[in-house]
Amino acid sequence: MAEIPSLKTVTIHTDGACEGNPGPGGWAALLCFGQHQRELTGAEPATTNNRMELQAAIAALAALKESCEVALYTDSDYLRSGITEWLPVWKANRWRTADRKPVKNDDLWRQLDELAARHRVTWHWLKGHAGHPDNERCDRLARAEVAKIRQRHTPEQLAALCTEFLARRSPDRSQARLL
């Protein structure tokens, strides 16, 4: 009988930030393997906090070059509950919620589902802003990405981008408006 090779064990911390909902947002992930650490960050000028939380997990899992045993820590209950509880129901319902509405952020959920399937992921929730060093680091990195977006765009540009973002996401585009 062939021996199954053990998987590398990677610990990932993620966080997303958004100023306004929608508004400029940033995300960060910290990947740890043994003594090695890697930080990933990104931002969008018009997004939501939930999309940034999802994007952080997507980027982290996509960065892994081989199948791994992953312990992923997030302060987002949306992310943890979505991937561990809601996703199987959404898929069974053809990407509809229990009340038959389209799943919000299904584009990102589909990506995350595909990436998570490549690994053995254990999803952990931890309280945000509670002094956990790796979570706090991700929070600072994500907020720094938001600050970079604010430096690159005027308030008027950001408002226009948010209006466009809402229009793209609204089922009835005539109803889209900036909140």
Helix content: 40-55%
Instruction: Point out poorly predicted stretches.
Output: 172-179
From the alpha carbons, calculate the radius of gyration and give it in angstroms.
17 Å
Strand content: 25-35%
| Strand order in space, largest sheet | 3-2-1-4-5
Mean pLDDT comes to: 91
Distance between the termini: 61 Å
Question: Largest sheet, described in full?
Answer: 5 strands, mixed
The coarse overall form would be globular
Q: What is the count of helical runs?
A: 5
How many β-strands, per DSSP? 5
Return the structural class.
alpha/beta
Topology as a string of helices (H) and strands (E): EEEHEHHEHH
Overview of the structural elements:
With 179 residues, the chain is an alpha/beta fold. The protein is 43% helix and 26% strand. It has 5 helices and 5 strands, in the order βββαβααβαα. It has helices at residues 49-63, 77-92, 106-116, 133-152, 155-169; strands at 8-18, 23-33, 36-47, 68-74, 120-125. The protein has a 5-stranded mixed sheet, sandwiched between helices. α1 (49-63) packs parallel to α3 (106-116). The longest helix has 20 residues, at 133-152.
Itemize the secondary structure elements and their pairings.
Elements: E1 8-18, E2 23-33, E3 36-47, H1 49-63, E4 68-74, H2 77-92, H3 106-116, E5 120-125, H4 133-152, H5 155-169
Parallel strand pairs: 1-4, 4-5
Antiparallel strand pairs: 1-2, 2-3
Helix pairs in contact: 1-3
